[in-house]
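for the recovery benchmark. tokens below, seq after
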């Protein structure tokens, strides 16, 4: 099943997912929580490893979205984490946080999202959790032809996902 956690920027989607995965061993993938006054980073759920995604200057090694600049190498590593999770896990949950403007431009985590969606629609025991901000929800659903899916409020995680 494909689950979509949606909400506005800064509403705690990633934070709630961090709480949800705290004592679980059946979850892998990437979270991108935001800490106030700190750089954006990726969190490899399987290895409990953190790596920086934000760049402070623009060059050939960065990708930009609005006023934010990100390291291409971080997205390459995040895609590797997701693809490794897809190949190593036949059951459980995979989180991709988040599908946003980059992915709508077929950049960022786009390729991994396509692979994860394909695997999920052909499995009864492998579940995908996508984080999408509310303002981009319809565009993401259309681009990735997400049907069927279940929309879950960030506050329903503990009730809806067992």
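predicted aa per position
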């Amino acid at each position: 099943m494909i689950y979509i956690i949606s909400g506005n920027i800064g509403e705690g989607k990633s934070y709630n997912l961090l709480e949800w995965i705290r004592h679980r061993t059946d979850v892998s993938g990437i979270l991108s929580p935001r800490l106030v006054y700190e750089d954006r980073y990726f969190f490899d759920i399987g290895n409990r490893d953190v790596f920086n995604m934000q760049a402070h200057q623009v060059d050939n090694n960065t990708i930009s979205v609005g006023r934010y600049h990100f390291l291409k190498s971080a997205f390459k590593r995040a895609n590797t984490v997701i693809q490794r999770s897809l190949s190593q896990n036949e059951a459980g949950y995979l989180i991709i946080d988040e599908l946003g403007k980059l992915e709508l431009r077929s950049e960022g985590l786009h390729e991994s999202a396509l692979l994860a969606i394909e695997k999920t629609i052909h499995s009864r025991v492998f579940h995908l959790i996508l984080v999408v901000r509310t303002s981009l929800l319809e565009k993401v659903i259309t681009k990735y032809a997400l049907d069927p899916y279940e929309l879950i409020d960030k506050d329903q995680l503990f009730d809806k996902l067992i």
